[in-house]
Amino acid sequence: MTAIEEDGKKADQGPSLVQIAVEKKQEANRNRYRKVEGHLIDYSKYHLSTKEYLFYSLSAMIVLFLIGILFYENIFIALIVAALGLLFPKMQRKKLLRKRKEKLSVQFKEAIASLSSSLAAGRSIENSFKEVVNDLKLLYPDPNTYIIREFEIINRRIENGETIERAIEDFALRSDIEDIMNFSDVFITCKRTGGNLVEVIRRTADVISEKIDIQQEVQVMVAQKKFESRILSVMPIGMIALLKYSSGDYLAPLYKNLGPVIMTFCLGLLGFSYWLSQRIMNIKV
Asked: What InterPro entries would the database entry show (predicted)?
């Protein structure tokens, strides 16, 4: 067997030990950076405040308690159903986390477009990052806007003698957003290899902008369907409430014998249909 055939056979067997060691080292470095910068915002996690946790829990428990009374006419079963409201903050946390990432992605699109324009105008990298903050303050008057705070942190680190590659990489790791991490990899590689940084950032900005624009168009198209799915999910409950308080004798058999079992099945089917509709309309680009 020739040396070429042996190399081909090794390649077919998967990554070498050296590649695995390099990947583990890179992962360890990323974890180390995340620990060092733990006092900054970690966009991969969302921590509910005590006020938010109590608000979401109590709101969900009240709604579920009323639904339990409507479906079972039994206060003890209604309390058991209401206890499920304690799981709602966890679900809401994921929703708030997703919204925060979407907001940061849109803000990053504006920042990268400003950065590309500044570099094309002949400014240095450091001055371009400072100019981005000024441009962002015109778009977002709130000084606590995520992207403004992050670029101010990057500029402060550069002023303190830290490399711009390290500052951008830390922001990308904390963002936990694919577009920002891809930009970080492209920027660091181009900066270290001496590539045409202006052209690379311009093309990267165009790609990211197109992707985010497509995401926003999809969200606009699906927004109406999401609203319709919520209406369809509430309508069965409204119909049961209308029948119960307008002609209670019509629903009386559903609260006796096997009636609660049928109501439980209907309630579960209603919850499953709502979950399935949200999954179908969760389109990712």
From this structure: T2SS_GspF_dom (IPR018076), T2SS_GspF_sf (IPR042094)
